[in-house]
Amino acid sequence: MRFAGASRSFVDDRREFSCGVDGHRAQPLGAKLVLTVAVGLFLSAFLAACGGFFIGPTLSLVYIQPPAATIAVGKTVQLFVYARYSDGSSGQISQSKSTWSSSATTIATVTSPGGLVTGVAVGTATVTGGFDGMTSTANITVTGSN
Fold it and tell me: What value does the mean pLDDT take over residues 16-21?
Protein backbone atom coordinates (compact mmCIF):
# COMPACT_ATOMS: atom_id res chain seq x y z
CA MET A 1 0.00 0.00 0.00
CA ARG A 2 1.49 3.31 -1.08
CA PHE A 3 0.32 6.85 -0.56
CA ALA A 4 0.67 9.52 -3.14
CA GLY A 5 3.96 11.33 -2.72
CA ALA A 6 5.38 8.78 -0.30
CA SER A 7 8.72 7.28 -1.23
CA ARG A 8 8.18 4.04 0.65
CA SER A 9 5.43 1.89 1.99
CA PHE A 10 4.66 1.43 5.67
CA VAL A 11 4.46 -2.26 5.00
CA ASP A 12 8.01 -2.41 3.61
CA ASP A 13 9.57 -1.81 7.05
CA ARG A 14 7.67 -3.97 9.52
CA ARG A 15 9.88 -2.86 12.44
CA GLU A 16 7.97 0.40 12.55
CA PHE A 17 4.85 -1.50 13.56
CA SER A 18 6.32 -4.29 15.70
CA CYS A 19 5.71 -4.01 19.41
CA GLY A 20 7.06 -5.85 22.38
CA VAL A 21 4.86 -7.40 25.03
CA ASP A 22 4.73 -4.12 26.97
CA GLY A 23 3.61 -2.11 23.92
CA HIS A 24 6.99 -0.51 23.20
CA ARG A 25 8.79 -0.86 19.94
CA ALA A 26 10.97 -3.96 20.05
CA GLN A 27 14.73 -3.49 19.68
CA PRO A 28 16.66 -5.80 17.42
CA LEU A 29 18.38 -8.67 19.28
CA GLY A 30 21.84 -7.39 18.28
CA ALA A 31 21.33 -4.06 20.10
CA LYS A 32 20.29 -5.84 23.30
CA LEU A 33 23.32 -8.11 23.11
CA VAL A 34 25.70 -5.21 22.59
CA LEU A 35 24.16 -3.30 25.49
CA THR A 36 24.38 -6.35 27.79
CA VAL A 37 28.03 -6.96 26.91
CA ALA A 38 28.91 -3.27 27.35
CA VAL A 39 27.29 -3.11 30.81
CA GLY A 40 29.01 -6.36 31.82
CA LEU A 41 32.43 -5.07 30.75
CA PHE A 42 31.90 -1.77 32.56
CA LEU A 43 30.91 -3.50 35.80
CA SER A 44 33.85 -5.92 35.56
CA ALA A 45 36.32 -3.06 35.10
CA PHE A 46 34.71 -1.03 37.89
CA LEU A 47 34.78 -3.87 40.42
CA ALA A 48 38.34 -4.86 39.50
CA ALA A 49 39.51 -1.27 40.04
CA CYS A 50 37.78 -1.14 43.41
CA GLY A 51 39.57 -4.20 44.73
CA GLY A 52 36.43 -6.31 44.69
CA PHE A 53 33.54 -4.82 46.61
CA PHE A 54 35.76 -2.44 48.58
CA ILE A 55 37.26 -5.14 50.80
CA GLY A 56 40.87 -4.28 51.50
CA PRO A 57 43.67 -6.66 52.38
CA THR A 58 43.85 -7.93 55.96
CA LEU A 59 46.81 -7.71 58.31
CA SER A 60 48.81 -10.96 58.19
CA LEU A 61 51.73 -10.25 60.52
CA VAL A 62 53.95 -7.56 61.99
CA TYR A 63 57.72 -7.54 62.31
CA ILE A 64 60.34 -5.24 63.85
CA GLN A 65 63.34 -3.67 62.15
CA PRO A 66 66.03 -4.09 63.22
CA PRO A 67 65.18 -7.48 64.79
CA ALA A 68 68.15 -7.19 67.18
CA ALA A 69 70.44 -4.41 68.36
CA THR A 70 73.41 -3.83 70.66
CA ILE A 71 73.70 -0.47 72.40
CA ALA A 72 75.75 0.98 75.23
CA VAL A 73 74.28 2.17 78.53
CA GLY A 74 72.81 5.63 78.00
CA LYS A 75 72.59 5.21 74.18
CA THR A 76 69.50 4.73 72.05
CA VAL A 77 68.37 2.78 69.03
CA GLN A 78 65.21 3.41 67.00
CA LEU A 79 63.01 0.39 66.25
CA PHE A 80 60.21 0.30 63.68
CA VAL A 81 57.13 -1.90 63.28
CA TYR A 82 56.31 -3.11 59.77
CA ALA A 83 53.09 -4.78 58.67
CA ARG A 84 52.57 -7.43 56.00
CA TYR A 85 49.10 -7.81 54.48
CA SER A 86 47.15 -10.65 52.84
CA ASP A 87 47.79 -9.24 49.36
CA GLY A 88 51.57 -9.48 49.87
CA SER A 89 52.12 -5.76 50.40
CA SER A 90 54.00 -4.42 53.40
CA GLY A 91 54.88 -1.09 54.91
CA GLN A 92 56.13 0.74 57.94
CA ILE A 93 53.56 1.53 60.61
CA SER A 94 53.42 5.11 61.84
CA GLN A 95 55.29 5.46 65.13
CA SER A 96 52.20 7.07 66.66
CA LYS A 97 50.13 3.94 65.90
CA SER A 98 52.62 1.36 67.17
CA THR A 99 52.76 0.05 70.74
CA TRP A 100 55.94 -0.93 72.59
CA SER A 101 57.06 -2.61 75.80
CA SER A 102 60.26 -3.97 77.34
CA SER A 103 60.62 -7.28 79.18
CA ALA A 104 63.26 -5.74 81.47
CA THR A 105 62.91 -1.99 82.01
CA THR A 106 65.91 -2.10 84.36
CA ILE A 107 68.02 -3.10 81.31
CA ALA A 108 66.34 -1.25 78.42
CA THR A 109 63.37 1.10 78.23
CA VAL A 110 61.28 1.84 75.15
CA THR A 111 58.95 4.74 74.38
CA SER A 112 55.39 3.86 73.47
CA PRO A 113 54.33 5.02 71.04
CA GLY A 114 57.64 5.69 69.37
CA GLY A 115 59.92 2.66 69.58
CA LEU A 116 63.00 4.49 70.84
CA VAL A 117 65.02 2.08 73.02
CA THR A 118 67.43 3.39 75.67
CA GLY A 119 70.08 1.27 77.35
CA VAL A 120 69.78 1.50 81.16
CA ALA A 121 72.13 -1.22 82.48
CA VAL A 122 74.26 -4.06 81.12
CA GLY A 123 72.20 -7.10 80.12
CA THR A 124 69.60 -8.24 77.61
CA ALA A 125 65.96 -7.37 77.15
CA THR A 126 63.24 -8.36 74.74
CA VAL A 127 61.37 -5.41 73.28
CA THR A 128 57.88 -6.10 71.93
CA GLY A 129 56.35 -3.92 69.25
CA GLY A 130 52.83 -4.18 68.00
CA PHE A 131 50.09 -2.87 65.79
CA ASP A 132 46.40 -3.71 65.54
CA GLY A 133 46.58 -6.57 68.04
CA MET A 134 49.62 -8.31 66.53
CA THR A 135 53.12 -8.22 68.04
CA SER A 136 56.72 -9.08 67.26
CA THR A 137 59.93 -8.94 69.30
CA ALA A 138 63.48 -7.62 69.03
CA ASN A 139 66.42 -8.70 71.18
CA ILE A 140 68.32 -5.82 72.76
CA THR A 141 71.77 -6.26 74.25
CA VAL A 142 73.05 -3.42 76.43
CA THR A 143 76.81 -3.16 76.95
CA GLY A 144 78.89 -1.00 79.31
CA SER A 145 79.09 2.70 78.50
CA ASN A 146 81.92 3.91 76.29
Answer: 54
